[in-house]
Specification:
Layout lengths: L4 E2 L1 H14 L4 H16 L10 H9 L10 E6 L2 E5 L5 H19 L1 E9 L6 H9 L2 E7 L20 E5 L7 E5 L6 H10 L8 E2 L16 E2 L5 H16 L22 E9 L6 H16 L12 H13 L1 E2 L2 H13 L10
Length: 349
């Protein structure tokens, strides 16, 4: 019969009901659900509702604050620091980018650094938030150490995602969202669930030998993508989101899946750039589409895609047909909602 598909509005209402049953405040319920459902719609299922069980576990243990107290501190006209009050990273991130956009509207550029946050889901969500407001943007976050520096053997950096967004006239915005490691942490968990090995050359043990068993990565380390290049980008993310913000750095960032006695201490960095300060918006769109035509013309068979383009195909398909839920996700969510007396939408008739 295949995987059941649930309409986005139904799945969102379900996720909100689950979060409210755990005492999550309405402000965070809304932003976290928006983030998860968007991730599911665009095919980033490992950042969607399948994260609810681990997040609710952390809420129950008190390491995600509900409600959280957000505090902005002005550092310069276009630069602010946001203390996330140990709230959901999804909520803190949305508010951080929202403020960066507002600052950019006033000053041409807006920068918000974040400390005392948590895991914030897909970085793409935030650059899409800015692109929808007509802004070019960056979104960075550090994460618990799983990645060795180039030439090293022990984990120092997280997968440290880096996202860039640029709006297009048709709304199918350019979105680059990448881990600075050779493999994302969520992909490792997928391999564990499916029982499939990792390709060689992505992770090493303490002796520097390749690891292909995904269950053993935790005792070893992932490698940065592209060797020294990925290492350099991971360092950049750690400095901008961790060092200068006063957030946790390296081993000062807690694992969402292994450390349940403290908040994540994640740091984030958001930048929004007002295109209209450089050229008219129409001129920008024309120039960008000219560049895109050149890019597509590099292959006569039309195989060249823009970063993030596959997301828009998923969005169209999942909006019409509904969001697919894997068996493992249904099982985990079923156990979660059963414990709260909430009906699962895929079992209702």
């Amino acid at each position: 019969m295949g995987e059941p598909r649930i309409q986005a509005s139904t799945l969102k209402a379900f996720a909100q009901d689950v979060m409210r049953s755990f005492g999550v405040d309405d402000d965070q319920v809304q932003t976290v659900a928006d983030n998860m459902i968007w991730s599911d719609l665009v095919g980033r299922y490992n950042h969607g509702v399948q994260r609810l069980p681990i997040l609710m576990n952390r809420v129950e243990r008190g390491v995600i604050q509900c409600p959280c107290r957000l505090e902005f501190t002005k550092l310069a006209d276009s630069v602010e620091l946001l203390d996330g009050g140990d709230g959901f990273g999804h909520h803190v991130g949305w508010r951080g980018m929202e403020r960066a956009i507002d600052l950019a509207k006033t000053h041409g550029v807006g920068i918000v650094g974040v400390r005392n946050s948590n895991f914030f889901g897909a970085a793409a969500f935030y650059v899409q938030q800015a692109a929808a407001a007509g802004m070019i943007s960056l979104a960075l976050s550090n994460s618990p150490p799983n990645v060795a520096p180039h030439g090293g053997r022990k984990a120092v950096f997280g997968t440290n995602p880096f996202a860039f967004g640029a709006p297009r006239r048709d709304g199918r915005n350019v979105i680059l969202d990448m881990a600075t490691s050779a493999l994302a942490g969520s992909t490792i968990r997928e391999h564990i669930v499916k029982g499939t090995p990792l390709p060689s050359g992505l992770a090493i043990d303490e002796q520097g030998e390749p690891i292909t068993d995904p269950t053993k990565v935790g005792s070893g380390a992932l490698l940065p993508f592209g060797g020294a290049k990925g290492y350099g980008l991971a360092l950049m993310v750690e400095i901008l989101s961790g060092v200068v913000t006063g957030a946790g750095i390296s081993h000062g960032v807690a694992s969402m899946y292994r450390q349940f006695d403290e908040s994540g201490h994640n740091g984030q960095f958001f930048m929004a750039l007002d295109i209209s300060r450089w050229l008219t918006v129409e001129a920008y769109y024309q120039r960008l589409e000219t560049l895109i035509e050149v890019i597509r013309g590099s292959d006569p068979d039309g195989k060249v895609q823009l970063p993030g383009e596959n997301r828009w195909r998923h969005l169209n398909d999942n909006t019409i047909k509904g969001i697919p839920l894997s068996e493992s996700t249904r099982k985990a969510l079923g156990e979660l909602c059963q414990s709260r007396g909430i009906g699962a939408p895929w079992t209702e008739t």
